[in-house]
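STRUCTURE:
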């Protein structure tokens, strides 16, 4: 094994290191080989495509993301004692789609982009997941994200499997008409493989409700008017009330459940939030409305702090006028890099993946970390935080509010009946509170932390559905 592989595996299997030496048990060999294959493929592709160092931060981040999912799933499989053949069937995606999308640019020249859709599992229902437009869309990462969606929908107990897709393009370099042509061509290529009872895409990085409106329109040319083919649509085309706020609202419901478990409530606690976009700003606003003291927030422009609590509605107004939290007069400017180390009760990373590392985790002063972003905590940081007694509410549960309200949107489209916002919010609360209770039951029965509890709940539900459906050829 190369030094590099050992370092990746040591991170992933940090719980099995003894005195700094990597110890891999025999039954883990197969999983290790799988991770090595993912690592090698990513390494080669990233090095070739972007000319980056094979051990550079981008490579490390991609490896971490892809492998963390495999790692957590592996832990869950061990906890649940799942048969290795079932495990293999859970790991391999149901279908991987790769299509070439050629469009004329506005100046008449032709340009081609590659689009992907990985449909991971449909044992519990139609597959569900975002479509992202990003220059670094890459099949192995899409695959890991599709798997994560399978476990996330299962944890939330909504009747879906998992999928993810995207087009390797930079939407900022495309005009709106070029984006529309690209979306329509992509939809033409995959229209018979998506659908309300097959696979239901949603917006993700670089896509939005307008992208979903184009997919709906193009799909409907082939299949008749079908709003339930996508979620995250504009309200006039069948989008759900409450969808914009749903991930942030779900984060708050999850936090509420966790704090209640510790005899605490939202009101009166001090919160620090990294990221003030869709998820961070809604989370901050709802916490503020419920009496939480949001003492510091950061975004890409900088960070602000007020020990008495920031006036979040005023900060939202400032951000909409200036584009960032920098310069907000209701607080003092602080270094954005120190946000994770701020004194508080609850720390909420709501921006990027991989921000809590072995180094940054050492400085965390919060008692609770709520993973509003995807993969904010790497496996090493997990250990450091556990040794400090910090409780982590894992992303696979904490940010599931968005996909849960996407499910409500699909239900409303199929019912042909629109719910009012109070109904959407109260149903979301039910789903989040119930999922927390289910995770806690698993944690108690298997003596594990919330991350392993959540993964075990999700993997267990999918495994059960898979076995009940059977494999008859
Ligand atoms: N939007 C959803 O429904 C949803 C659902 C599930 C998970 N997530 C995850 O939540 C996270 C945030 O998503 P979003 O929709 O709010 O994105 P967004 O683009 O609306 O906001 C991202 C925020 O992060 C900030 N940011 C970027 N780099 C930063 C840095 N270095 N330091 C501090 N702040 C930085 C940006 O300024 C912005 O305020 C992502 O990890 C996303 O995958 C989002």
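SEQUENCE:
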């Amino acid at each position: 094994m190369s030094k590099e592989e050992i370092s990746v595996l040591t991170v992933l299997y940090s719980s099995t290191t003894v005195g700094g030496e990597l110890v891999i048990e025999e039954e883990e060999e197969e999983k290790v080989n799988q991770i090595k294959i993912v690592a090698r493929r990513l390494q080669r592709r990233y090095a070739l495509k972007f000319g980056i160092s094979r051990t550079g931060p981008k490579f490390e981040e991609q490896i971490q993301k892809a492998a963390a999912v495999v790692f957590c799933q592996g832990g869950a499989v061990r906890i649940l004692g799942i048969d290795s053949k079932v495990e293999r069937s859970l790991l391999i995606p149901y279908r991987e789609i790769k299509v070439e999308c050629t469009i004329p640019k506005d100046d008449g020249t032709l340009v081609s982009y590659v689009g992907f859709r990985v449909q991971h599992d449909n044992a519990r229902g139609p597959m569900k997941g975002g479509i992202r437009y990003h220059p670094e869309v890459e099949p192995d990462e899409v695959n890991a994200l599709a798997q994560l969606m399978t476990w996330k929908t299962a944890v939330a107990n909504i009747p879906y499997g998992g999928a993810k897709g995207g087009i390797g393009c930079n939407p900022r370099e495309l005009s709106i008409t070029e984006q529309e042509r690209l979306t329509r061509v992509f939809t033409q290529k995959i229209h018979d493989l998506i659908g309300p009872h097959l696979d239901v895409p949603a917006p993700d990085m670089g896509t939005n409700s307008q992208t979903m409106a184009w997919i709906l329109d193009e799909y409907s040319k082939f299949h008749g008017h079908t709003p339930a083919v996508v979620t995250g649509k504009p309200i006039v085309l069948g989008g759900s009330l409450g969808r914009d706020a749903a991930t942030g609202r779900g984060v708050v419901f999850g936090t509420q459940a966790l704090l209640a478990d510790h005899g605490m409530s939202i009101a009166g606690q001090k919160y620090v939030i990294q990221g003030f976009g869709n998820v961070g700003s809604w989370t901050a606003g709802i916490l503020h409305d419920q009496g939480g003291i949001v003492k510091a927030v950061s975004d890409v422009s900088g960070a602000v702090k007020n020990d008495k609590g920031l006036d979040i509605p005023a900060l939202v107004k400032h951000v909409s006028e200036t584009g960032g939290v920098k310069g907000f007069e209701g607080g003092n400017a602080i270094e954005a890099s120190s946000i994770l180390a701020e004194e508080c009760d609850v720390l909420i990373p709501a921006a990027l993946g991989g921000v809590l590392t072995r180094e940054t985790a050492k400085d965390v002063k919060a008692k609770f970390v709520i993973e509003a972003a995807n993969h904010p905590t790497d496996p090493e940081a997990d250990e450091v935080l556990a040794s400090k007694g910090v409780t982590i509410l894992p992303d696979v549960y904490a940010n599931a509010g968005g996909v849960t309200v996407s499910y409500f949107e699909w239900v409303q489209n199929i019912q042909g009946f629109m719910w009012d916002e109070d109904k959407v919010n109260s149903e979301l609360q039910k789903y989040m509170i119930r999922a927390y209770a289910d995770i806690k039951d698993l944690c108690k029965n298997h003596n594990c932390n919330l991350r392993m509890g959540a993964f075990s709940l999700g993997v267990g539900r999918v495994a059960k559905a898979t076995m009940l459906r059977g494999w008859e050829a």
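REMARK: The chain has three domains: 3-89, 93-239, 244-398.
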